[in-house]
Design brief:
The complex is a heterodimer of chains A (392) and B (177). Chain A is an alpha/beta fold and 392 residues long. Chain A contains 15 helices and 14 strands. Chain A has two domains: 218 residues, Rossmann fold, CATH 3.40.50; 162 residues, Rossmann fold (3-Layer(aba) Sandwich). In chain A, the strands form three sheets. Chain A has an eight-stranded mixed β-sheet, sandwiched between helices. Chain A has a three-stranded parallel β-sheet with strand order 9-10-11, covered by helices on one side. Chain A has a three-stranded parallel β-sheet with strand order 12-13-14, with helices on both faces. In chain A, helix 6 links the parallel strand 6 and strand 7. Chain A is globular, with a radius of gyration of 21 Å. The relative contact order of chain A is 0.10. Chain B is elongated, with a radius of gyration of 31 Å. In chain B, 3% of the residues are buried.
Chain lengths: 392, 177
């Protein structure tokens, strides 16, 4: 079968949840189908500046076809976004917001109409202009991977059409499906709860890292962008408060690009961006992973921890993370500082609990997120599209 | 936190996350019932009260969310996006005209709006802190009432014991005669 994946940016060096999600799925599907990527020439999601050359190139097992972005993101976008997201915006203003949000690449959307040879178009992330217009153009051949988080955008009318028009939806979690149902008022949403598997990267030799990163003492680890919206400022504040009351508290290790200032403290270590194998080695030797974000549609790093039998401690105000912990029995959650302090101390002190949570997480990962399971579910969605088209 | 404080969290052979979380919540509740609140616990209680006041006042939920956020996005701001609900050439003309007029209006309005924004910020800060302080005082007050009650009960018991002892002494003296 011929499959096209549509995503806002694509490439080995592109960092982003939906982009990585797309690359992982596309590369695995390419082993069974002919897979083409339709994307833009942009690498920066804030400006959508055309950086990569227009046209066709081969990236791994997939053919990538890039289209130029016709209009960059306007400089006053943040003001417009604030107005639209914090008030009852008119349809016209919402449309203006969607176009400004971008990437505005009409040639990509036009291209979809010229591809009768494609059996299924898989769109990644609902919130982009190319997805909203592309799903409409692809019609009954469309599969949407929403990667929806519980933010204000999901409640905008301008996005509801994309969920109505998508032929099938590949949800990341049951909570994501419920959120979309609540936000759009749709009781019947076609599709499956799928998520995504993980890349096969063996962790590096940890003993080589101990001296280099001063990791000889026990530690907990956070992996991801170190920014306010990911809950990192709150995490650091809560951790320091805990550390004041307990001098034996293990170190907090942060891995990722730092966007906010982190206090200079003997127990907090920022390792910056690490190569995948080093990152995994640090995770494998951590007491547990901590995930303070309130807005997640899946959290691949959580799956990464469970794949390594590491337990997790998550922000319970995020429905998806709390739901994943309850379903997997692979981690504990907190919703306020008091719970944070109690859970932190329990996780740090109880070796048997950590081991059992880690084992449960591993079993949950294997049951739900191994590639066999994921690809089988994608095959079901693609098969449904074929059946529907055949019936017509 | 001492080792002994963790004795009551039971973890069986099969981990039950819901049960562990329920035990953690119960421990926190018990501490709070005994008047042991952390600063964050007081802040959360105060925030819940502010939300309750706002709900009673039927404030728009979007505005309320902005009022509660750590940034000052709720405040008035002289900068704004110029747009129109119209479309086509008419929209472009209107937006262009508004953009031309705006600098002259802002020459007079920016100073006033900026001052009002600072006053708003001050009042919001003041009110949030007042609610927090009142919450803290009420908790302290409850603790003190509880302690006074306990002391009164202890005093009553001590007085009764004293009376009994006095009676016993009197009885023994009478008996001795």
């Amino acid at each position: 079968m011929k499959i096209a994946c549509i995503v806002q940016r694509y490439g080995d060096q592109i960092v982003g949840g939906a982009e990585l999600h797309c690359r992982l799925v596309a590369e695995r599907l390419a082993a069974m189908h002919s897979v083409e990527i339709l994307t833009t020439c942009a690498t920066d999601y804030l400006t959508w500046e055309n950086v990569l050359p227009e046209g066709i190139e081969q990236v791994g097992p997939c053919t990538v076809r890039r289209f130029p972005v016709s209009r960059p993101r306007p400089p006053d976008f943040d003001d417009l976004a604030f107005r639209v997201l914090h008030s009852t915006a008119s349809s016209a203003l919402q449309m203006e917001y969607l176009e400004a949000h971008g990437p505005f690449a009409p040639s990509l959307v036009e291209h979809l109409a010229n591809r009768p040879d494609i059996d299924a178009f898989i769109f990644f992330s609902y919130r982009y202009w190319i997805t909203c217009n592309g799903v409409e153009r692809a019609g009954d051949r469309s599969i949407l991977v929403p990667t929806a988080e519980h933010d204000r955008a999901i409640y905008l009318d301008v996005y509801h059409n994309v969920f109505r028009k998508a032929s099938q939806i590949a949800f990341n979690s049951i909570e994501e499906k419920e959120l979309i149902g609540r936000a759009t008022g749709m009781t019947e949403l076609p599709g499956e709860i799928i998520g995504v598997g993980l890349p096969d990267v063996p962790p590096s030799d940890f003993t080589r890292l101990v001296d280099r990163y001063d990791l000889d003492a026990p530690y907990m680890v956070y992996i991801g962008r170190i920014e306010r919206s990911k809950g990192c400022a709150e995490l650091v504040g809560q951790y320091l408060k805990c550390a004041d009351n307990n001098h034996e508290l293990p170190q907090l290790v942060l891995i990722g690009k730092q966007h906010i200032p982190i206090p200079d403290h003997s127990k907090i270590r920022c390792l910056g961006i690490l190569p995948e194998d080093l990152k995994l080695a640090v995770l494998q030797n951590a007491l547990f992973l901590i995930m303070p974000s309130r807005y997640e549609s899946l959290s691949m790093v959580l799956l990464e921890a469970w794949r390594m039998r590491r337990p997790v401690m998550v922000n319970g105000n995020c429905d998806v993370l709390r739901g994943q912990c309850l379903r997997s029995q692979g981690g504990l959650y907190y919703r306020n500082y008091d719970q944070f302090a109690e859970v932190m101390h329990l996780m740090c002190r109880n070796d048997a609990l950590r081991e059992r949570l880690g084992d449960n997480g591993f079993r949950y990962y294997q049951r739900n997120y191994s590639w066999d399971v994921i690809l089988n579910k994608y095959s079901i969605l693609i098969g449904r599209i074929g059946d529907r088209r055949g019936a017509e | 936190m001492s080792e002994t404080e963790w004795k009551d969290i039971e973890i069986g052979a099969e981990v039950d996350v819901s049960q562990i979380m329920a035990q953690i919540r119960k421990r926190i509740e018990e501490k709070q019932k005994a008047g042991i609140y952390t600063e964050e616990g007081i802040a959360e209680l105060a925030e819940a009260r502010i939300l309750q006041f706002a709900e009673d006042a039927e404030i728009d939920s979007a505005l309320l969310e902005r009022l509660m956020s750590p940034d000052h996005s709720w405040n008035i701001n002289p900068g704004y996006v110029i747009s129109t609900h119209r479309s086509g050439i008419q929209a472009k003309l209107i937006v262009c005209a508004k953009k031309m007029v705006r600098p002259f209006i802002r020459l007079y309005s920016d100073h006033l709006i900026s001052r009002q924004a600072q006053i708003n910020q001050y009042f919001v800060h003041l009110i949030h802190n007042l609610v927090r302080e009142i919450t803290r005082l009420q908790i302290n007050h409850s603790n003190l009432v509880y302690r006074v009650d306990r002391l009164e009960r202890e005093k009553d018991i001590t007085e009764r014991r004293l009376k009994t002892l006095e009676q016993m002494v009197q009885f023994k003296q009478t008996d001795g005669r």
